[in-house]
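Hi,

Apologies if this is the wrong queue. I'm a grad student, and the batch job for FAD dependent oxidoreductase domain-containing protein from Nezara viridula produced an output file that my downstream script rejects. I'm not sure whether the problem is my script or the file. Here is the sequence I used:
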Amino acid sequence: MSECRIGVFGAGVVGLTTALELQQRIRNARVTVIADNFKEDTTSDRAAGIFSPATYFSGPTPEVSQEWINYSYNFYKELQNELGIGIRDLSGYVLSNRCYTETRNKYLETLLPVYRSVDGEELASIPTGDWKYASYLTTLLIECRQYQPWAMKRIRSNGGEIVSGKINSFSEVENFGKFDVVMNCTGLGARVLCNDKKLLPIRGQVFKVDAPWLDKFYYGGSDTYIIPGIWAATLGGTRNFNSWDTSVSRYDSACIWDKCTRIVPRLAKAPVLAEAVGLRPYRPIVRVEPEIINGLKVVHNYGHGGYGVTSAPGTAHTATSYAIDLLRGTSSKL
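Support response: The file is valid. Your script probably expects a header line. Output copied below for reference.
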C-alpha cells in the first residue's frame, strides 16, 4: 500500500487511540488528528477511568461487543508497565441490596483475573457493613489525565500531526487537507455532523477529592461509585439522559456526597479538589462503520456513552480494519 493520508477528527480517548491504531497497522500512513478540544477540555479527562463497561453497552452484536472489551483490556495490559501512562490494577466491590445478579457483569466475569462473589465476614467488613450481596473484582484504572498526553506524544513521535480545528459538515474536511480516509471520532459532535438523532448526551456530575488512603473502588447501586485515582478519587454520580446542562447542580452535589459518604464514611473528611460535569456521547449501538459521503471515504467511530475509555482500543481496531478495506477498495460493508 502506497503512502496515504488519514484525518482523525476528535482528540478524546477514542480519537487518540484510533490514531495510534492506524499508525501501528498502516505503516505508511500520515495521520493528522484534528480537534477543537484537547486534554483537560475533553469529556475523557473527567472520566474516572475504571475499566468496567455497563452490561447494556452494545456494539452491533453481543459477540462484537465482547471482542471490543477483550481487545481493549489486553491493549491496556500491554501498556501497563510503561512509565507515565497512568494505567494500574485496581480492585474493589460491586454492591447491591436487591439481588446478586446486580453485582455481576457478563463482559468481565470471564475476562478479569479476579471476579468472585462475596459473603460472610468479608461482606460485613465493607465500610457500611449492611450490604446483602457483593462481587469482588480486579480490573484496571486508566487515568486519562496521563494517558491522553502520552498518546499525543506517541502520535507525534510516530510522525503524526495534531492540529486545532472543527468541522460542522464533511464538505469542510478539505479545509484541513486532502485525506484518503477520514475517521469520525467526534463524540457528541457527530449528532450535528452526521445528523444522527440516535446520539444523545448523558450528563454526568462528579466530585474529585483528595483521598490517597482509598485503595479500593465501590459501586453501590444505581449510579453511585467511589473510584480511587492517581491524582484524585472520583465520587459520582448522575446519569441524566438528553441533558445538555454542563453547570454543577447543588442538588446533585448533595445527593452524590450523601450516597458516597454513606458507603465510605471516612470520605466525609476528604478535601474536595473539584466538581466536574461531562456529557457522555450515548448511542444505543456504538457506531463503527464505513461510509462514502460525496466521494469522501469515512469511518465512523462514536457513541460510546460513558465507556469510551473501556472500549476505545477495541472499536479503534475495528475502525482501522474498515479504513484498510477502504484504502484497498475492498470494503464489503458499503
